[in-house]
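Predict the structure of DUF559 domain-containing protein.
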Amino acid sequence: MNHDTPLSFRRPDGPAEAAPCRVMTTAQLRALGVPAAETAERCRPGGPWQHLLPGVHLLRPGPPTGPDRLRAALLYATRGAWPDPGSGVPAQPTARKPCRPPRCAAMITGLAALALHGFAAVPPLPTLRTIDVLVGRLRRPRSAGWVRIRRTAALPEPVTILGVPVAPVPRAVADAVGRLTDVTAVRRLLTEAVRDGHCEPAALVRELSAARLLDRPPLVGAAEALLAEGRALAEDRLYRMVRVHGLPEPVWNVELRLPGGPALGGADAYWPERAVAVELDACAGRPGEAGAAGERHTRRRELLQRLGVTVVPLSPRALRDAPRQQATVVRTALRAAAVREPAAPVVVLPR
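Done. Here is the predicted structure for DUF559 domain-containing protein.
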């Protein structure tokens, strides 16, 4: 056999054609007319192909690239059934017809996913020793070679990056830090996730809590630190929204009280002449507290509204993604307040 001659693939019912991609399974090659014996022959030392993972082959010599490894990991985790519409490669074939897997059968997670999301604190994809693949709990594949299989009862909705299904940032971070013991590395990942706007702190805290990681030594105190960091970022976004979009200057970060009476709660921004308060939505706090915090905030807002104070809740995500629209919401509330009945007297104190 001449290993220097490119291999042509012949389907049982079609003409010979070039290999449609560089990484394929034994079953996919067989469906294209390449018997298993020929695949094994070409994957021998010195041959033009190589084994990457059980049943998965790289159809060229030399080290696999980052995309090669990602494709191989997904093909292995789904037993060759990972769909890749642009490749022209059939999914895991049967004697009758190709069989496509359920949607989101597997996705890249952990450090490899964070590299795809663009995290600076993560080594480049080609240098990672392990690629984590998230699959459903009932799927059969086991970890092999440089692929580590992680199972979950419910797969999250993936993000597609470079044609590859990737776990959303909160889940990818949780899967990554669950394997890390270096406190500095863990903190660096968590900080980058929040400060660079990859995800909201509350979503990250919920994912870490669901994975039961918050009591582990590298993550003790992480929830409070993340929420405080997120709070500071949200306040900065609020300041910029008011100034960039030309809203009247409010008093910042104040406590509202009835004259001689109890506290009514705080406001992140307050316009006393219009009795309009902006409140950053902080209901998503520490796991297990969101429900109680939400009830307290609802009761407080209802009390303020009965006193004639308009409360405008703004979420950190909305301030990040749509500051112009949030400025319009606040401006509308200020205009409406100018023509309504005067509010009850409220004492404004620094918080």
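The CA atoms of residues 183 and 217 lie 8 Å apart.
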